[in-house]
Each structure stands twice: as C-alpha cells, then as structure tokens.
Amino acid sequence: MIFTAVLDANVLVPYVLCDTLLRSAEAGLYRPLWSSKILDEVRGAVSRVRPDLDPSRLESRLHAMNAAFDGALVEGWEPLVEGIELGGDPHDRHVVAAAVRGGASAVITNNVRDFPDPAMERLGLHTVSPDQFLLDLEDLDPRTMVRVIEQQGADTGNPRMTPIEILDSLGRAGVPEFAAVMRSHFA
C-alpha cells in the first residue's frame, strides 16, 4: 500500500514547493491528500502573498490538482474536527481530521510544532516538515527525484530553469536541506 500524506496549505502555497511535491506524487512516490478547507486556506494565503495574481489562475491550478489526483480531495472530515485534541493551534484540527478520514500516515507541514507528537501518535499519525519529507523521498528513490527536478525545470516558461535554479528556488521556499542534497546529483 502506498504511503499517504495530507499536504497542509503552507506547503501548497510556494508554487515551486507545491510543484515538486505534486510531481513526486505523480511519479508514484506517495499519495497526496487535502481537503476543501485546506484549499480555502491556500486561496487566502495566495491572495495575501500574491495580490497581483488573477484568482482564475489559482482556481485553475486547484482544479487541475483535484483532476490529476483522483481521491485526493478528502470529504466527510468535518464531523471529526470536534473530537480532535491537538493541544496546539485549534485551527489546525481540520488538517488532522482530513488525515484521519483519508487514512493518511502523515501531515506534511511547515508548522510541525502545531501538531504535537503525542496527540498525533494517538491518532496513528506523524508530522513531517516538507524538507524532511522530500529528503525521505530522495532517500527512497533518488533517480525518480532527479527526474522530478529535471522535468520541473524543463516545464518552466521561457527561459527554462535549470535543475540548479529549481533547487535554488526550493531552498528559498523552505526546503534547504533537500535542495542541498539534490545539488549533489547535478554536480
């Protein structure tokens, strides 16, 4: 059975990071999940950090995500929220509810501290930073991750980005250790 993880909104907002995570899933390294509430948080965050972005472009991207990953949009998580005891930020309970409902093993988030280990372990979940998650994927299948980065660069606009430029962007997007390890594949 393939590893399944909920992607929190904060790892879906930096486009380059979201792209790498989704390409890794597309390559079969894991199964991504999210909820309508997580996507609403993405909308809010993008409107704050990129007020110049046409909202229809973001909607198109979110629609494409749902279309590309059948079953990634977890439904029926709402009744579980009230029973989730995190001890961290109560606003993050919906993320855990989606993970439980979707049968995930982990939540991938930049806010690891908001998902305390004891509370998560009681639910059979663990919390992983995107940096550590991508490092784990690289350790699992380095060749596939090299192809992911190469293709990500090849698919960028004009001019195309090199793999090193993609990795530089990823380093700035919050996954510096992954970017550093991946650079060794392109040296």
Automatic annotation (TrEMBL):
GO terms for molecular function: hydrolase activity; metal ion binding; nuclease activity. Residues 5-113 form the PIN domain. Keywords: Hydrolase, Magnesium, Metal-binding, Nuclease. Transmembrane segments: none annotated. Residues 130-183 form the VapC50 C-terminal domain. Pfam families: PIN_3, VapC50_C. The keyword Hydrolase applies. This is PIN domain-containing protein.
